[in-house]
Design brief:
With 328 residues, the chain is of the alpha/beta class. The chain is 43% helix and 15% strand. The protein has two domains: 210 residues, Rossmann fold; 90 residues, 3-Layer(aba) Sandwich (Rossmann fold). The protein contains 13 helices and ten strands. The strands form two sheets. Strands 1-2-10-7-8-9 form a six-stranded mixed beta sheet, with helices on both faces. The chain is globular.
């Protein structure tokens, strides 16, 4: 395993530099009001409208742009359930270099197809093997330069550009909420908020089936999550919180809340019905937290829709499973 620099949060200068660097690859996504909610007032940061339909393009574009030429020439690889893989593949294709993705074998076909379409070579592996590879930053048979999907300073700096946009577009927001997978999104956005709007709270959201960050916050240190269960919320949650990510998150993420799977389905349904937004399970976590009052009643609340890469048949099954109560 290569020697790693101590983890730290990005500086404002680094975040602003990342914003300029990824311009033209990632897009500035809109911030729109979710109608029909009043307590709290909810706004949607639509990262599902990125070219890969997920926020991961921001971090991947910044990380790959900053690689030394010798490392770029070797090609790049990452580990992903789908969205980070798409981000790395997209950025690599624009840079003219090959990309390989060690992909969790339960990833939805929509994400697998999109990675292939972007030219990525896919190597499927079980969840535990993929999680171990992220820790070791190596996997037998895969060569090239590893781009970590969350524990990478440049990746996090790219993610942090979301926070700058939120503050510019809605300076009166009280809370910003996002899904927590590895922690790169929440720690990135939180870093930007601390730098330019420290009065805004940053809250991470996990599903009940995979909530190691919530357990870590409760117990005051990085913890494994022994009750981990696979679910349709494949883009968030894990079996543990990496200690290096804990060091970042504890500085800039104020709280972690947990929602159940029925609440996620209802949020997906509300987004489709009221805003005509297709969100994958992880992308709807922040809205689920807002609609259930777990982010409090004081707004405005910004819910980051982190991705929309979900098989349409699965989406229809999830949102059509039951009418559900009226939210908001």
């Amino acid at each position: 395993m290569p020697e790693l620099a101590p983890p730290r949060i990005p500086t404002l200068d680094e975040i602003r530099a990342a914003a300029g660097r990824i311009r033209g690859t990632a897009v500035r996504t809109p911030l729109v009001r979710l109608e029909g909610t009043s307590s709290p007032e909810v706004w949607l940061k639509l990262e599902n409208l990125q070219p890969i339909n997920a926020f991961k393009l921001r971090g991947a574009a910044n990380a790959i742009a900053l690689l030394p030429e010798a490392e770029r020439a070797r090609g790049v690889w990452t580990v992903s359930a789908g969205n980070a893989g798409q981000g790395v593949a997209y950025a690599a294709r624009r840079a003219g270099i090959p990309a390989t993705v060690l992909v969790i074998e339960t990833a939805p076909e929509t994400k697998l197809r999109r990675m292939r379409d972007l030219g990525a070579c896919l190597v499927p592996a079980p969840f535990d093997a993929c999680w171990s590879a992220m820790d070791a930053r190596a996997y037998e048979g895969i060569e090239g330069t590893f781009v970590h999907p969350f524990d990478d300073h440049d990746f996090i700096s790219g993610n942090a550009t979301i926070g700058l946009e939120v503050v510019e577009d809605l300076p009166g927001a009280r809370v910003v909420a996002s899904a927590v997978g590895g922690g790169g999104l929440s720690s990135g956005i939180g870093s930007a908020l601390r730098a330019v709007a420290p009065e805004m709270r940053m809250v991470g959201v996990e599903p009940e089936t995979a909530s190691p960050a919530a357990l870590s916050y409760l117990e005051g240190g990085p913890r494994p999550f022994p009750k981990w269960t696979a679910s349709f919320v494949d883009g968030a949650g894990g079996k543990s919180l990496f200690p290096r990510m804990w060091e970042r998150m504890r500085q800039v993420v104020d709280d972690i809340v947990v929602v159940d799977l029925d609440e996620v389905k209802e949020a997906m349904r509300v987004l489709a019905d009221r805003a005509r937004v297709i969100a994958e399970g992880a992308g709807a976590l922040s809205v689920a937290a807002a609609l259930t009052g777990k982010l409090g009643t004081e707004g405005p609340v910004v819910a980051v829709i982190s991705g929309g890469n979900v098989d349409l048949a699965t989406f229809c099954e999830l949102v059509g499973a039951r009418p559900g109560p009226t939210a908001g």
